[in-house]
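Please describe our next protein:
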Amino acid sequence: MPETNFDFDQLPERRGTGAIKWDRFPDYTPFWVADMDFASPDCVVEAMRRRVDHGVFGYAQAHAGLIEAVLGYLQEMHHVQVDEKDVVHLPGMVLALSLACRALAKPGDQVMINSPVYYPFFNVARDADAELIDVPFTRDETTWRFDWDAMESAVTSRTRILILCNPQNPLGRVFKEEEIRMLAEFCERHDLVLLSDEIHCDLILDSETSHYSALRLPESFQDRLITLMAPSKTYNIAGLGYSFAVIRNPELRRKFNDARGCTVSEVNALSMYAAEAAYKSGEPWRRDLIDYLRGNRDLLADFIDQEMPVLKIQEHAATYLYWIDCAALEVSHPVQFFAKEAGVFLTDGTPFGSSQHVRFNFGCPREHMLKGLQAMKEAIDRKNAAKQT
């Protein structure tokens, strides 16, 4: 039977477990690395426990239960039917981004991104000795948008790939179907492969917002599409290292697989059983998680608006990572300011493309989040008081 009545208010003790988030900078309270401070669903833990009880951990391949779970997930959650042969199982998402660049771009070719964006997007082109083209998003009073004119001006005959992050990290935007279709038309017009990173697609916080996967684009576009997904962010199993690519074009899939060379290992045996359990039995937990994260997001937004209005935020429809504009705070390095003055460690916006932004991880118990926000408020209040004296 599916589990119910989940408790997201308990903060597990993570210090001393080798957790990057808690142990790398132990003098600070962490709200940075993109994993949550919640225990994974019992169904995931039990699935791994059963696998551990078997006692043999040799090289593994995707087993029938995992394949069934992934295909069922794509059908049920994204309304797409995918053949087993179109799915490539991988030990991580970032390496998949790098792999795609190495497969499809030669030295001197170009890869296009839109910033601010998850920082590895800036680096994976380098793995192929390709040139990076960054066309920043434009921002109006409510949201961030593609700068279509700038993209048309920047693309060249050497551009091979456009990398999309949807839902967008760190902006929290969920792109509409119309925007994804316009992006597909742009790629077709300039003969680009669309590499769509959709790792946060099951973390949509607003019920009126839905994720339009690139997998739902017309069949004629599927020949130039690589879609990346994973259960890792949703079910807090990022450290297990499992993701998958859907590549319907056989030639594109062959190039992708050939680029693995000796640099990509087999997928961890335990991670595949965790993924199977998450997709097959984790949905009740995920729904409760979304409700809890929505409450955290709304509380965080209200706290900033009312208690720290010097910080600026915009709409946030997905992910547990809030992008916060600190420009009006008038400090050189916002992350260093909050670490030193509040004892709170946030993600620096500089590697994402904006030195005056920070990213706040609210995937944690509510009381813990509020303590961090209160510490930030008090640091700002002290700064303002010192300025007036």
